[in-house]
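Predict structure. Chain length: 88.
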Amino acid sequence: METAEAQLKRMAMRSWRRGTKEMDMILGPYADLHLKDMDAERLALYDRLLWENDQDLLPWVLGQVAPPADYATLIAEIGVFARARLKV
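Prediction complete.
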């Protein structure tokens, strides 16, 4: 069984090592700032999100394509964070 500390470490690493630099620069800082404050339900949702393909994630975050309904609120939050951080 994965400890809470190991889970956060794994998720942070996966956020920074996505496969595309664009998603690294969006999810890495987002995870650094928000993971520690997420409740169990939100962590589980974010963990599922990390398994999504970057070619799907980026258009969702940029608002070019609507994300699946279960991710909509989380993706909107990540998008706001990314736009504010990257001044897009």
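Summary: The CA atoms of residues 61 and 80 lie 9 Å apart.
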